[in-house]
Amino acid sequence: MRPQELGAVGRGLGLLADTWTLLILQRAFLGVSRYAGWRETLNISDATLSARLRGLVDAGLLEPRSYADGGRERRGYALTERGGDIWKLLICTWDWEKTWVPREVPLPEIVHRDCGRPTRVRVCCAACGRAVGPRDTEVEREPGAPGLDLLARRHPRRTRGTLPVDPLSFLPGAMEIIGDRWGAAVLGAALAGIRAFTCFAHELGISPEVLSDRLRRFVALGVLSRSGDGEYRLTDKGRASFPIHACLVEWSHRWCGGDGAPIDLTIRHRACGQPLCVRLDCEQCGRAFARDSVTPPPSG
């Protein structure tokens, strides 16, 4: 292993756990492919949008595509295979927000095209087919694997900014748990069984100030509760975020591990003993989702 190298999951966090990155990718799935389309639907500044698009192209998640506009050639963007493979992460994020975060304008239903019905998402182990949740798994850190202490230096904290008012992109709960790198890392550690402040700090290499802020946010959001002994325990709402983190880990293994980053942690399904490969099933008909079998929320 090369010195000063983030592991696969650390790299995945650095790439994906950012609010604007996720919202840009979400809109790409909804058909947005032009600069003006993102700027208008997300109400994002030119500087922020330009920086994120450059980063997504550099990371291989988007690729430039030329198109004709009134006789002039302009540049648009398209999802690559690598970028398109985050579809499970986006669906689980959408499902969690719709289920657990009250809102004035409800999010559209997830519709499974194969059966034609609105549905919730059932998370299963692809190896054995059983439904799986955080209590059915264990997290294994590879011996000698790099920690997350490099995350802040490699990926400095970005300003959260103001979420778009467009109801399709207004995901305040989900962006707290996956739209921030340290927030995603803290909640992932909680899902792995960590409860004490000192254990979070030791495991993640996170500063006390940042850790205190994220724990406070999660208690306010209702995904963690603080017990009388000062420990932080997952609520039902917090445990329900497990699919989001499982999909992030799986994507990181496939694409960051495939690029040569060392595997730093693995989620293992206790029942079958296999590393968890996420399969998303339709609760209505029981069949597995494919990327093109789930109707995306309408763009207008």
Automatic annotation (TrEMBL):
<keyword id="KW-0804">Transcription</keyword>
<dbReference type="InterPro" id="IPR002577">
    <property type="entry name" value="HTH_HxlR"/>
</dbReference>
<feature type="domain" description="HTH hxlR-type">
    <location>
        <begin position="2"/>
        <end position="105"/>
    </location>
</feature>
<dbReference type="Pfam" id="PF01638">
    <property type="entry name" value="HxlR"/>
</dbReference>
<keyword id="KW-0238">DNA-binding</keyword>
<dbReference type="InterPro" id="IPR036388">
    <property type="entry name" value="WH-like_DNA-bd_sf"/>
</dbReference>
<protein>
    <submittedName>
        <fullName>Winged helix-turn-helix transcriptional regulator</fullName>
    </submittedName>
</protein>
<feature type="domain" description="HTH hxlR-type">
    <location>
        <begin position="166"/>
        <end position="260"/>
    </location>
</feature>
<keyword id="KW-0805">Transcription regulation</keyword>
<dbReference type="InterPro" id="IPR036390">
    <property type="entry name" value="WH_DNA-bd_sf"/>
</dbReference>
